[in-house]
Amino acid sequence: EQRREPHLGKKKRKIISSHFLLPFSSPRIFTKQISLQFFSFFFLILRIFSIEERRELWDRFRAMAKEVDPCDHGEVVDAGCVRAVLAELVLTFVFVFTGVAATMAAGVPEVAGAAMPMAALAGVAIATALAAGVLVTAGFHVSGGHLNPAVTVALLARGHITAFRSALYVAAQLLASSLACILLRYLTGGMATPVHTLGSGIGPMQGLVMEIILTFSLLFVVYATILDPRSSVPGFGPLLTGLIVGANTIAGGNFSGASMNPARSFGPALATGVWTHHWIYWLGPLIGGPLAGLVYESLFLVKRTHEPLLDNSF
């Protein structure tokens, strides 16, 4: 009896550890659980508000949508709109040119999906962060410095920009990205243009969830540091946005590519003709961006009505 107890104990511990490691041993199960937990957390956030508060939120969003004409075609002849679209074209061109050139200089792995050395990835992250911070600052008072269809769509979903202007922005961003990558291909003598791809062992669903989370964090910072009128550091908002872009590049670069920007992925794919898993770099950012706007405005921009305590309340 005494000899069997240690054996049974080891067997029991082995069973427990195998059940604990089961989600991590199967990529599909792990991705499914992460997805369920992410969306469960989102719906849990919505349940924080009472029915009256939800109705107040809905009325507020409807009022916000009415304030902005979603199809203001008159903007096409507005000088301010034309300047803004041209600014998006120039700024996105420089951003994609810098990011892709930095990646090419760092060295593209010869094997598709192979991990980039951390030193090279850090260099790309620094270049991308500096470019994003400086360019958003440069275009902030002209077009808002979007540089990213995910940012444009997120602001459209919250009523901060018209549908007509957002369509012009996205078209300018995609055109700029394409021109930047085609020009880089010519300037480098046909050097391989790096395309966003999934890392080794990363499935499409894993890459999708990764892009959703990375873009969510990016837009959350945009809302907190730029769009929130209570921000204590309004002038530093674009620079802080650049920092989160760099941090996310290091965090997700070897897993999903850390695109967070459909335009950044579109140009290289068009220049090379490689469209493998390209849908991930559209769907992920276009889910994560508007979701961040919804969560931030629902949680942190809601005016809760309450009576302040008086000094003689006790």
From TrEMBL:
It holds the Pfam family MIP. Its main location: membrane. Keywords: Membrane, Repeat, Transmembrane, Transmembrane helix, Transport. It comes from the Eukaryota. One of its GO terms (cellular component) is membrane. The chain crosses the membrane at residues 29-50, 89-108, 114-138, 167-187, 207-227, 239-259, 279-302. InterPro entries: Aquaporin-like, Aquaporin_transptr, MIP, MIP_CS. It is a multi-pass membrane protein. Gene3D superfamilies: Glycerol uptake facilitator protein (1.20.1080.10). The keyword Membrane applies. GO terms for molecular function: channel activity. It is found in: Endomembrane system. Belongs to the MIP/aquaporin (TC 1.A.8) family. TIP (TC 1.A.8.10) subfamily. Aquaporins facilitate the transport of water and small neutral solutes across cell membranes. May be involved in transport from the vacuolar compartment to the cytoplasm. This is Os05g0231700 protein. It comes from Oryza sativa subsp. japonica.
